[in-house]
Amino acid sequence: MKAILVRGAAKSRKYFKTAALLSSLLAAFPAWAAANSLADIKARGVFRWGADAEGGAPYVYQDPKDPDKLIGFEVDLAQALAAKWGVRAEMVQNNWDGLIPALGRGSFDFIMNGLEITPEHLKQVAMSRPYYIYSQQIVTEKGRNDIKTQEDLKGKKVGVLSASMSQRLLEKMGGVTIVSYAGNSEPCRDLKNGRLDASLMDFPIALYYARPYAELKFSGKPFAYGYYGIAVPKKDAELLPEINLALDALLAEGKLKAIYKKWGMWEESMGSKMKHYGKEDALVEESAASGLPWGKYLWLLLKSALITVELSVISMVLAVGLGLMFALARLYGAAPLRWLSTAYVEVVRGTPLLIQLYILYYGLPNIGIKLSAFVAAILGLGMNYAAYEAENYRAGIQAIPRGQMEAAMSLGMERMQAVRHVILPQAMRIVIPPISNDFIALFKDSSLVSVITMVELTKMYGMLANATYNYMGLGLLTAAIYFGLSYPASLAARHLEKKLSYDHR
Amino acid sequence: MIIVKNLVKSYKSHKVLDGISMGQARGEKVVLIGPSGCGKTTLLRCLNQLEVFNSGKISVAGVTLDAASDHSSKAWKQSRHELRMRVGMVFQSFNLFPHMTALENITLSPIKVKGMHAGDARKLGMDFLEKVGLGEKAGFYPSQLSGGQQQRVAIARALAMKPEVMLFDEPTSALDPEVKEDVLGVMRKLAFEGMTMLVITHEISFARDIADRIIFMDAGKVVEAGPAKELCAHPKEARTIEFLSKLLPRSTRMKAAVKVPDNQLSLEDLWD
After folding, report:
1. In b/e form, how buried is each residue of B136-146, taking b as 16+ CB within 10 angstroms?
2. pLDDT digits (tens, 9 = 90+) for B33-75
3. Looking at the predicted complex, does its ipTM rise above 0.90?
4. Residues B95, A404: C-beta atoms closer than 8 Å
5. Residue B262 sits in a domain of what CATH number?
6. Cβ(A199)–Cβ(A139) below 8 Å
7. How many domains does chain B have?
8. pTM
9. B72, B99, B145: best mutation site toward chain A, by most A Cβ within 10 Å?
10. Which fold has domain A294-500?
11. Strand partners, A46
12. A439, A312 in Cβ contact below 8 A?
C-alpha cells in the first residue's frame, strides 16, 4: 500500500510542470496540486493551508467589518510563513472535522487550524513543532462559584466543541454529562440559557466566544496545557523540517510573540515553554473512543440508532397528524384557516430545516421558551415534514372524484362526515407511497438535529470516525444500520398499501 | 311534492336555469328530457342542493328553500339537511364508494347519519340488496360488479335512507345496452310501488311507459310539458318535435322490449 502511495506521489511530481500550465483548471483537482516539498511550493509560488473559518475566531474567521476578508492569528501566522518562504499563502476552507481526511486526499499542503499534537493525530499525520500552547478554560454563568477545577465538573452538564481536546479530556475523566456542539458560540448561548452548568473550551476560543457574554465568566485558572502543531501528510517528510525551521525562526525573531500579543493570547510563561517543548509536558489524551473493539463501536452506533428511530417515528407521527389538519383546513376550512395553512406550508417548505432547528433551539430562549434538545428536534422535524405531508394529503384528497363527495352529501352526510368516512379512506391509499417515501427521507434528515446537540446515528458516526479516522469501515457500518432500518420500513409501507387496496379484480 | 318557482342558476353571465317553474304531485313520475346542456341535470342537482341556485324557490317533500335567505345560517343548513334526508339521488356514474362492499355502501349512511345500529342496518341493507336482485353480491366491492349491478346497488343505497322523492340523473347512460334493462326494471318496480320519481333519461320508450308527465327543457327553460303519451304523439313546439324525432325511431324499434319484466321484484314491503 505504502509503495503504491510513494509511486503515486512521484508520478504527481513528474506531471507537475504540465499541471502548472493548467493551474486554473487544476485548482479543481487538488490531488494533483498538493506539494510534497518546499521546492514544490516555491516553484508554484503559493502554499495552500487547510482550515475552517466557520466559527473560527480567533484562529481563522471572517472579519466582521469586511466579511470578504479572513483574519485570525493563524492567518497572520500563514502570512509570516509566506513571507519567510517568499510565496503567497492561500487558505482552503474545509470542515474542521474533516481536515485530516482532506489532507490525506491532497486538498491542501498542510493543516494549520488549532490541531492538537496528540498520539492519535500523530498516527494519521506528521506534525510540526508547536506554534502555540493552549490550555483548557472553564466558563460558567456569573453567579456560579461551585465549579473552579476540572474535578468540579463531575456530575455536571458540560458543553464542549465536538471532537475537541476538551471533549476528550472529559470523556477520559468520566462522570460528566457531555453535550457536544458543532460550533463554539452554541455552548456559550446554551450556558446563558441555563441549559448547561459549564462549558470547557480551549483558552483562545474562550477569549473570543465566551468573554463577550456579560452573563458568563472564566471560572478558575486554565489547566491541561497542550500544543497546536501544523500537520502534513506522513509521506511528505521533506516539507516538515522546513516548516519546523520556519517556526523556530519566527519564534526566535519574536514574530510569534507579536502575533499572539496582537490577538491578546500571549502569556509570558509561553516563551520558554515554546522553546523547550517536549512531549512529556504536552497533554496527550487519547480519545476515549479510540482503540475500542468493533463490538463496542457497533453497540454505540446501535444505541444512537435507537435515538434516530425514536426521533423519526415521533416526529413523523406529529408530521402526519399536523399535515392532515393543515390539508383539511386548506381544503375545507373557512377563509382565515385556509389562508393560514397555505401560508404555513409555503413558509415552512420554503425555508431550510437547519434554520428552523436553530430558531427553535437557540432562538426561542430569547423570548423565554426553553425547549430541550429532544423536544426541539421533534418539533423541528415534525413541523417541517407536516408541510410536506399536508401537500401529500391535499393531492390525495383532490384525486378523489367529486362524485364521491356528492354521493355522500346526497345521502345526508355533512361535509366532515363525508371526508371522514368516504374521502379520507380513499385518499389514504393514494398518499401512503409518498408518505412512506417522506418517512425514509425524514429518517435520514434526522441527522440534521446534531446541530442542536442531539447525538443520533450520524453524529455518533462522526464522533467515532473523528476519534479513530476509520471513516470507511465505520461509514459502511453506519450506512448498513440506516439501510437495515429503512428497508423494512419501506417493505412495511408496501404491505400496508396492498392491504388498503380495494381494487380486487 | 315538488314545487319549483322561477328558479335561476347562472355561471357568471350564462344562465343555465332561466326561470324554471314546475310542480310534481306525490306518487307522480315525471321524466325530464332535453338536449345536453339544456339545464336538466342542473335542475335535478338544485333539488337536493348539490348546486346552489341564484334566485327563486324550491319546495321538496315539505322542505322549502328560498334563494333569498342566508345560506350560511343555521336554519338554512338544517333545511338543506332535511331536504337531502327526504330526497334520494341516483347518479349517471353510480358514485359507489370503492373502498366499501356493496352492503357497506348501503349501511354507511343509515349508521352514520341516522344512528342506526350496525346489526339493524345490515338487515335493512340486505333487504334492499335482495330487492334489487343482488343479495348474493353483498360482500363484493364495486370493482367486482358490472356497471348495471353497481347502479342497482346505488339505487338500493339511496332507497335505504327511505326518501320520499327519488331523483335519477341519466341512470342508464353509462351502461351497456344488455344491462340497462336490469336497472330500468328496478326503476319500473319502484314506480309501480308508488314512489315519487323525477327522472332524466334518453330512454324515451321507458319514459312513455312509466311517466305520468314528460317535461321538455331547452336553454334553461321549460319548453313544453304534458302527459307522456300525448307529448310523444303530438308535440306542439318545434324544438320538441325536432328533439323527439331524433329519439323516437330508435325507441319505436325497442318498444317490444320495454315491458315490465315478469321477475318477482316487489318493493311493496319496503315502506311501512
Report:
1. ebbebbbebbe
2. 998 888 899 999 999 899 999 999 999 998 999 888 888 889 8
3. no
4. yes
5. 3.40.50.300
6. yes
7. 1
8. 0.73
9. B99
10. MetI-like fold (1.10.3720)
11. A88
12. yes
